[in-house]
Amino acid sequence: MRLVYLTLGWVTGIVIASMFSALVPLFWVVLLAITAFVSVLSRDTRYFWGMLTLFAFAFGGYRFGFVPQTSDIAQYNDLGAATVTGQVVQAPDRRDDRVQVRLSTETIQVGGTVRETSGLVLVNIARLSDIRYGDTLQVTGELTIPGVYDTFSYADYLAREGVFTIMDNTSVEVIATDGGNVFFRELLAFKDRLQLRIDRALPDPEAALLTGILLGDERGIDPQLSDDFSRVGASHVIAISGFNMAIIAGLVMNALKGIMPNRGWTAATLGISVLIVYTILVGANAAVVRAAFMSSLLVVADQFNRRTYVPASLALTAVVMSFLNPLVLWDISFQLSFFAVLGLALFADPFTRNFDNLMAGLFPEPIARPLGNFLREPIVISLAALIMTLPLTMLYFGRLSLVSLLVNLLIVPVQAALLFCGGIALIIAIALPQLAQILFWLDLLLLRWTITVVRYFAELPFADIELRLSFFTVFAFFSAIIGGAIVNATRPPIAVRFARFLRQNIVINTAVSVGVGLILLCGIIWSSRPDGNLHVWFLDAGHSNAVFIETPSGAQILVDGGRFPSRLLTGIGDRMPFYDREIELVIITHPDEFDTGALEAVLRRYDAGLVLLNGAENLSEGYQVVEDAIAPFDTLAVTAGYTVTLSDGTLLEILHPQTTPDITSDLGDNALVLRLSYGNTSFLLTSDVTQAGQFAMLDSNQYLGATVLQIPQHGTARSLSSDFLASVNPQVTIIQYDEANRRGDPDINVLSQVEDTQLFTTGENGTLHLWTDGTTLWAVSQD
User: Fold this and answer.
1) Each residue's pLDDT tens digit, 710-729
2) Are 505 and 511 in contact (CB under 8 A)?
3) Which residues 6+ apart lie within 8 Å of 202 measured at CB?
4) Element (H, E) at 586
5) Where are the alpha helices (DSSP H) in 505-652?
6) What average pLDDT score do residues 535-559 get?
7) Given 156, 469, 504, 594, which residue has the most CB atoms within 10 angstroms?
8) Distance of alpha carbon 587 from alpha carbon 349, whole angstroms
């Protein structure tokens, strides 16, 4: 358990350091010195291990300080076309529409000047390009920042691998070949030959599935089939996991022990070497490395005739991997793999005992034993792993599979045979492809069974439902589980007495628990009451318009919403009371699905009191979905002069368009522009209105002044008229944009126009929260 405590301290230090980047390295060094000094002087064992845990905490924070936050090549992002040279340092990722290579850059040419540089670039090149590991390339294209999408930050994903730059629209020239590590190059060539054997022996989708299971290459799997596996909660079958690695380790060790029965350590060394080579062969992602490390620990423990304590082994794995790369803790595949194994460690044994008792109570002994042996593994393993991975699935993917347990019951029993048969066939195919074909055909039956079951259940309308958990809910769940496991393992006297008290006073404790729950619920409701201020959130919705407003009396207004449903739903859910299911006013500034695509998901969750539109039409298929979503609610097309006055003193004025646009009108020319006022403070929300629209407002002689101005069109070039800016005369300006946009927004000339104002941007600061009591304005970033 001490290793578990040290690991918790280490991981907490990394997480705290990531949250508070202002903590300078000196802080962690001083904390390291203090904890080390006190640990050495401490004579009490309890204090010693407590201080050692604090030392691990400080060391984790100190280690995170060395994580690179950028690269030298990244300074050229979004500066136009460039030519870079470098070496391909990983196996090319071949997809249906392109090939992705990771290039370790050596030189860059910008504007005719060649400079030395360094850092990784992810290069997208044509699908049929014959690029291999170790090639030296000269690539011309535009260096840009990776993007952030609905529930997935491509920028963060690549940053974990040290990539801060991508290059698209490239022209590529191979200037040298056969570079890089010779062993790795030959291993990748061997993997290509193995994949070719599978492709020649089996049809798709079975060949693609077996390639994913054995070689870790899932790119060939049809996206629809991959989604089916996700819907039914069986994605773990595709990915190489601890389950696959344990089978492989068992096969290798049993074979080596048969060949060299009296040379245990030699067999163990060879077995671990095979696992290392296999890990490199299949790509060595975080989940595979964790599985290989755990399997190696099991092999070593067997030589000492010791039963490994899985939580401690998991803790050691987490420390080693996060020491090498602290960002692995944010890798979703690592988290899913880690907590699945933790679930097995915590729940497999008690679930097995309860399952055996259940079978013995339901069936006579001659039936209970064989039936239990057949059903125990798929049910117990699936349920134990599901308990710990389900919260993560709902956090990251917003899905809850209702058929997962049944599907795993049907497919898990055949996976060991599938892996064994496919692996043996692949080994034999190297020398005797005709003999291997028979084994491939037998494996075809198991692969087809797996695919058939998954497809059948995925087609059921109730296969899964949308259900998303918040980060704090998931954090509280894992804290309770891990805390309970620690208490159960250590059994401190106070916990034992408390558990005995609970068992002896179940009625009283139930009543007290319900009462405490009701008090907490009332407290949450009380804290979510309106505070008498006007709140405006400029949501971080990428390169889209999305503004959420709460008036002093608690009415909600949503202006557009962007195109990422999960980001918008989270932005609204974090700011609306959980019991409130109506947005009083939804405003669609113009029928552009890029700014409104997420509304369909919102209006499935919430009712709309009234929907305001500018009256323009858009016959695109994407916007028709939005129109279908707003159809059940009251809608009203409005133009300049329309106002909404709330009883709490909030005033909403429509300033543009001047007339209802027709279908031939430019969307931006006629976007709704509205001013939101409370007391002496006002917000001018301009959406994507063009300079033509701004001139129309100036010509209408309306009063345009506002305290806060939302810069139109995300600050793109020529988006802001200087006369319009002067007429508004704002103190604060807001730009909503995505750092990874390809247009180079915000334009440097637009930024110079507003340099005399207080400028906030979602690209740099995330969601922006501004609120006012009618006199004073406050602003804070909620990134």
Assistant:
1) 999 999 999 999 999 999 99
2) no
3) 210, 440, 443, 444, 447
4) strand 582-587
5) 506-527, 565-573, 593-596, 599-605, 621-630
6) 94
7) 469
8) 55
